[in-house]
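Convert to structure. Protein one:
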Amino acid sequence: MAMLAVSVAANGQISNETLPNPDNEPAPVHPVPSQRQLLWQETEFYAFFHFGMNTFTNAEWGDGSEAESRFAPTKVPNPRQWLEAVKAAGMKGGIAVVKHHDGFCLWPTATTTHSIVNAGNQNGRDTNIPRDFSEAARELGMKYGFYVSPWDLNSGYWGDGTSNYVNKVFLPQCLELAKYGSDQFEMWFDGATGGDHAGYYGGNKGTRTISDASTYYDIPNLRDTVHAIAPNCVIWGVGDEARWIGNEAGWAGETNWSMGYGESGNEHNWKWRAGESDAKATNKGWFWHSGESPKSASELFKIYLETVGRNATLILNFPPDQSGELPQADVTVLQQLGTMLQQRLGTDLIPGATVTASATRTASAARNYDAGNLTDGDKDTYWATNDGEHSATINVEWAEPQTLHYVMLMEYIKLGQRIRKFSVETSLDGSSWTKCATTTTTVGYKRIIPLNNSTSTYSGLQARYLRITIEDSRSCPTLHTLSVY
């Protein structure tokens, strides 16, 4: 068993080289994710917490001229309450906004006076969101990260034609935040580059713009600096390690490659950029506004199916109010969502079934690629076919008919995303088959297929047999998990 590689000699000649492959593993189909990208995608479902000056000015985008005294929480903000509430919904972590475009910083920074140091009351001056958020996340066993806006409508340095803003404000702020924990999983940089939104800019009021965010913000240096402190911290947005899914409505494309851009990605793009879907869980803005209410648990479950269930991660926004806590209505709907996820996706029917495959990769002395790897609960074992076999069928059989709602598939993406098209069918007798989903293209990290072909309704069907046919793949298909609910 061997693997073909390309080598370049000292004289510049290119030649093929055969490398040992004793376990007969499939060759990677590039691009493939880095270790930090893998860990990030495994987070799957986490929260966004927009809190800051806008919470007290009824704005979504402040212009940076707001008096620091306007930040005056009625209590000392309580990030632990935020995280406890979203953990009840099954979320694995959260991103806290610690600086929005208005430039107001929710920690005692050395880079500006536009921060909690000059807040309007003692509760505000006692605020330190990066400190309290990271500590609470560790205590709760959750992942955490920070949103820090590169755009700064308060700073007179921003967009002034020099490197002063980046060197004196932005990079030092990112370094300060990185030091709140080497275990951060994501740092969130919105890509705003100025434009027609007027800012204060240190008293030089008007509009400013920059032409290229990556160059202006010195992103390669930023990425290396953050990774040196927090090696598993994905730099979202301008950092180019994960992509915006292309909308803020809470859905990814039914075809969704982990390469490229937008809702569907691009199979032929050369770089791994798995998608993150950011969506509001309330009916007004990203920040808290008086009179707002949360979406129902059913609406949020639909968003979950159309994001996490379509090879994206979901960052769902719940904004704390002026007390620095999540409103009780939000806490209640989060509990309801957690119950719904557990009821609908918490009991896997696969352990009671027999699972076989029409094709299986040749085993080695140390490992195999049998269909049993789909159901062993180990993400590091997987089913695969032999090289050149780009289609296969996985068969599931129960002793008695079952009520089925969803099928979940997970590719072994360490070796790249492969599956282009598949189908799902059910049967009561093993001879008469019904196709269950009309659009089944990519799988990726995770794909959840509603067997009633609807993400809005919850209705099951009776079946004793289930058949999944991989119809096309970029190379031999690999899957590490199959679940049925």
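Protein two, convert as well:
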Amino acid sequence: MDNEKRKIAYSALKPTGDLQLGNYIGALRNMVAMQEQFDCVYTVADMHSITVDVVPSELRRRSYDFMALFLAIGLDPKKSILFVQSHVPAHAELTWVLNCNTMIGEANRMTQYKDKSRKAGKAGINVGLFDYPVLMASDILLYQADYVPIGKDQQQHLELARTIAERFNNRYSPTFVVPEGYYGTKSTSKIYSLTDPTAKMGKTDDNLNGVVFLLDDADTIRRKFARAVTDSEHEIKSSPTKPGITNLLNIYSVMTGKTVKAAEKEFDGASYEKFKTVVGEAVIEYLRPIQAEYKRYIGDKAELERIMKEGAERASYIARKTLSKVYRKVGFIV
């Protein structure tokens, strides 16, 4: 069993906003755990970021920040392949071939594209925004990924990747692994905004008081939790009718390793003010070593770039093998 080939998992985060607690609890901590079970390929997806207007200097800064935070939370370049997407040209090259194996109707049906189109209007839509699900398929299929950790909002994109892979395999002969979704454990908590506990905490949220960023200082975190929305009652219980309290209990559970039930007992009879203060302090203590490691990596740009370069070389080796196979099958001279 020890010699059995491990499955491959692929995941990417787009540096269009600063990483926050929802990213960590919903995705990043699971990415760390997956290293022990799978051969993991993890990407800072900067190519996906330019489908909307971004300030180039901000994109560059965030790409460094994301890689430094990847390392700070425990993603290990010895266990996983960590790289910046644009450093591996095969992502763009495979996308063209996959574009020619994707139907317009399939791309048109992508819900996120439709939602963003409605918000931006026709004048604000570029071809990249329409086409990015095909680039996402390339990201996954290049590495012959068996699993892709996703949430509900990405299921449709994974289905498109599977459809493209199956179509190519049927047309030219087996070439791509058809990937499956990886949904983690049932205990994975979704974290909501502190100011609107019915909306997911998001790194591009307009109300920054509702978002706890991984690099927020202690005073900022205390202030945000002090202002967190609760309800007009006084009981600290997890319930669908108490979304604010439930959200805070879930955050506390992850930060301390205690169950929600244990947390409810701990805060039995406590005021909401006391409860919010303790949750904020738990977050501060949890993030303290991550922030210290981040500062160490971001302060040594040469080391960070060395890790990026090494990761891109490892990723490119795998990606070029897949791309060469694809090129030969479609009739290109390789």
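Residues 301-330 form the longest helix (30 residues). The beta strands are 8-13, 39-44, 81-84, 147-149, 180-182.
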